[in-house]
Design goal:
The complex is a heterodimer. Chain A is mostly beta strands. Helix content of chain A is about 0%, strand content about 50%. Chain A has strands at about 5, 10-15, 20-25, 30-40, 45-50, 55-60, 65-75, 75-80, 90-95, 105, 110-115. In chain A, strands 2, 4, 5, 6, 9, 10 and 11 form a 7-stranded mixed β-sheet that branches. Chain B is globular, with a radius of gyration of 13 Å. Classes of the chains: A mainly beta, B mainly beta. The interface between A and B is medium-sized, with 19 and 22 residues.
């Protein structure tokens, strides 16, 4: 089945630094990937839709300059949290549509970001 | 009204019990219905998906969809402590996927 790899699984950084999270589709091509944020005991909040070769589409209220998304290839999307602050601490998860099951999303394992 | 309603629980059951998890939705445009399981600090993993009304069974899991009532269910038979997780329903219509809030399930040994 489709596998999505997400790295790093956890990261701790100082306030003001930038952090990059990678999302890779390992055995399929993903023209579209999705980035979510999840707070403890809450459901997934869609942040943006990442489109290969074009600009990402951000959900209302999500700062595009704060959360930079790059989808330069059919197997890789990256999320960069710029000038991170403690309030950016969260669990970030990516997903991609499984091309064999076109309407099913396959998720990465998630990345836990802690900003000190 | 939210597009998808799901009771967040928590739901606590003894080992071996039959668990029923449910979601209701309001938009009849949703065509695909999925259930994901999410363990703490992990990404969601797909359990089952279906696109038609009726039942779909996979081992101890049964997904049920009633499009006329806009109601979907996931049944877990012979529940195990390892089933303790958060279960999210997800509905897709066109290019849009909406997730329920997730139900936290605890299965006690």
């Amino acid at each position: 089945g489709a596998v999505v790899s997400q790295h790093p699984s956890w990261v701790i950084c100082k306030s003001g630094t930038s952090v990059k999270i990678e999302c890779r589709s390992l055995d399929f091509q993903a023209t579209t990937m999705f980035w979510y944020r999840q707070f403890p005991k809450q459901s997934l909040m869609l942040m943006a839709t990442s489109n290969e070769g074009s600009k990402a589409t951000y959900e209302q209220g999500v700062e595009k300059d704060k959360f930079l998304i790059n989808h330069a290839s059919l197997t890789l999307s990256t999320l960069t949290v710029t000038s991170a602050h403690p309030e950016d601490s969260s669990f970030y998860i990516c997903s991609a549509r499984d091309t064999e099951r076109a309407n099913v999303l396959t998720f990465g394992a998630g990345s836990r970001l802690t900003v000190l | 009204q939210k597009e998808v309603e799901q009771d967040p629980g928590p739901l606590s059951v003894p080992e071996g019990a039959i668990v029923s998890l449910n979601c209701t939705y309001s938009n009849s445009a949703f065509q695909y219905f999925m259930w994901y399981r999410q363990y703490s600090r992990k990404g969601p993993e797909l359990l089952m998906y279906t696109y038609s009304s009726g039942n779909k069974e996979d081992g101890r899991f049964t997904a049920q969809v009633d499009k006329s009532s806009k109601y979907i269910s996931l049944f877990i038979r012979d529940s195990q402590p390892s089933d303790s997780a958060t279960y999210l329903c997800a509905l897709t219509g066109g290019f849009k996927t909406i997730f329920g809030a997730g139900t936290r399930l605890f299965v006690k040994a």
